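Page 47, continued from p. 46.
Same chain as before, 355 aa.
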Amino acid sequence: MRKRCALNIISGQLGAGKTTLLKHLLQQKPDNEHWMLLVNEFGAVGIDGPILESASQTSVTQIPGGCICCTAKSELETTALQLLDEQQPDRLLIEPTGLGEPDSLVDLFTSGQLAGRFDVQTLFSVFDLQQADLEEFDRLSILQSLFNMADVIVLNKKDAVSEDCIRQVQAYCEQLYPPKQAIYITQQAQVPLNEIRHPHFHHDTYQPTAQPFSPFASLHTAHNPHAEHTQSTLPYTPVALPNLLERVYQTQLDTQAIGWVFDNDITFDWAKLFQLLESLGQNRFQDSLSSVKRAKGIFRVGSTPRMLFQWVNGQATREFIAYRKDSRLELLLDTSPFDFPAFEKALQGCIKTEA
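Result:
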């Protein structure tokens, strides 16, 4: 059986330092490994490819004149298959244009003709600290994709900004989900070679690093022997939910936490989910509005899109998110009665069925 080719995607803003990062990685390449580069530039004449090829003596394939995340996606698929069959590389590194969103690339390399041919490893996202704008980070979908899909974030050009700017951007990155394997603050996008081999977070072997933020932190503490909580049996008779991987209930001081994790094959109706969250503010499942402290969930709502749903302080919100591994929901409640079976039946009603 042919060994899968390791794959890394080097994404980031235009001019942030993607090519510089690639050059540093290539300088550390083990002599016994066969690497190839695939460089995508939006312009019709490729410049980065010749720069990398001359600097590293590594074979570079260019796809100029279109973004491989959208208009040139079919050309990328054909080129990747051709490289696998003819060159049989140990590792393929892809540098998409700075206008590309990496989530569509991960979807491409884990489905269709490419499924099972590549081992998707560390996805790097490079950012120019000089262009740091926290409001734009939350507003622009391309920046959200770059941040959310990254396993390793490189905050580059630290010499050009203040320490306060660095602290603010670093704090923003540390609260992202999924948590990052590493966050580097660099002057010339220098990252050690060992960071290249992390399983990307969609992978079955992915293990999140210990970071201070997770949208399901109360569930994760169930595995921490020092946490002051009690993981309990369910206080109700559960509803049989399809494709359910895990259901966890625990109590901690005056708070109940319950979470559900569904496998990646199941699809939800986003409009019904949003209505379900909004109903948490209408005493549908509880006697008191204040009994629900927070609801947060990530759901597959189509062939590839995932949405992050949140309910807090009586307000429900939704936004796209790059997380791909599963669908999951957590409720944080006080200790007053809550109709868990009715909620599970309502959640079951949000699952799409085959026509």
